[in-house]
């Protein structure tokens, strides 16, 4: 006796709601073995091979190359012997990470247990639709589901949105206009569909703006000594450690140490809870040739020496540009650094990478005239932009953090970096 087992789109991370199928490695009718690679999928973070969860025959492919699917959506079926009843999942599914809930003097009403999302009641598609429309978890839980066992359907959520007493959060609703028809768009110019990565980035950025009360502070840092240090030792550093000595690496080193004194900034928001993260994992935004963006993570940056951080960054940047990042390379970030100065920008206002609560932006290093001891001198200067979630971090804490980053950066030298032998 045979039984059909569904193949579902795996959940690829906390903020990834969907993926795009690049190619199936098996075709309908093929025999498959457990752990065989079934397909390759693309998300905004990485490309991943999805493995078979059971031994049997591939009998349906409901999604094809180029199609998108929400995490948890059924995309095919494997026919197996009835005695074998594997869990309906793909091997690329990601387990949740460990977190600790602690007290804090914020307006959050912290409790001992994190709110759990009932995944039997809320499908991944419903969760994504709720996210894009700014529906809170409390609002979701208040909806009466008409599906089996009280499950909330797409129709239930759409009906809730239609009679919602507050203004809609979508861009089109804010503009009070309907989405234009494709033929109307074609009269304006060439219509180019967004890639899967660009669509997901767009959703993620809009969701961040709707979620966090963004505030940005800017400090001007004198890095004349760092420019000189880098020029003195960069060649020997690269020869010895096989890694580039970069300003991003230096700021990652500094930030990983300063965050220990500011646990609320190395935090995440989960519903009405604030989670002070145990680890310091710093993501560094990397621009790709196709104008998309990924944020690989230097895991446990606070435990790494400066050369180890430089080596990790070189490895992650190379993997990013080769489209070879793994899930482990992009998961569990607690803070993010964005170096828009690499493209000549002096000041920017970066958007927080949810569910984090802050992000540090680096501008370009520029020479400026400065008055020092009654004299005008030329100094190398760097603008640091610190965007933070004002629900969690107040202005005083944000200012103290940025001031600590500035002072620590201006004190960097060979001894601090343990590079006295270079």
Strand/helix succession: EEEEEEEEHHHHHHEHHEEEEEEHHEEEEH
Largest beta-sheet characterization: 7 strands, mixed
* CATH structural class of the largest domain: Alpha Beta
CATH topology of the largest domain: Chloramphenicol Acetyltransferase
What's the architecture of the largest domain, going by CATH? Answer: 2-Layer Sandwich
Poorly predicted regions are: 84-88, 93-117, 166-177
N-C termini distance: 70 Å
Overall geometry comes to globular
Structural class: alpha+beta
Into how many domains do the coordinates divide? 3
Please give the number of β-strands: 19
Helix amount = 25-40%
Overall pLDDT: 82
CATH superfamily of the largest domain: Chloramphenicol acetyltransferase-like domain
Architecture overview:
It contains eleven helices and 19 strands. The chain folds into three domains: 2-81, Beta Barrel (OB fold (Dihydrolipoamide Acetyltransferase, E2P)); 97-192, no CATH class; 213-410, Chloramphenicol Acetyltransferase (2-Layer Sandwich), CATH 3.30.559. The longest helix is centred in the middle third of the chain and has 18 residues, at 224-241. A hairpin with a 4-residue loop joins strand 4 and strand 5 (47-51). The protein has helices spanning 124-132, 137-142, 154-162, 171-175, 182-186, 196-211, 224-241, 247-258, 306-321, 327-330, 395-410; strands at 2-8, 18-24, 31-32, 37-42, 47-51, 56-61, 68-70, 74-81, 214-222, 267-270, 273-276, 282-284, 286-287, 293-294, 297-298, 335-339, 358-362, 366-372, 375-389. The N and C termini lie far apart (70 Å). It is α+β, with helices and mostly antiparallel strands and 422 residues long. The protein is globular and about 85 Å long.
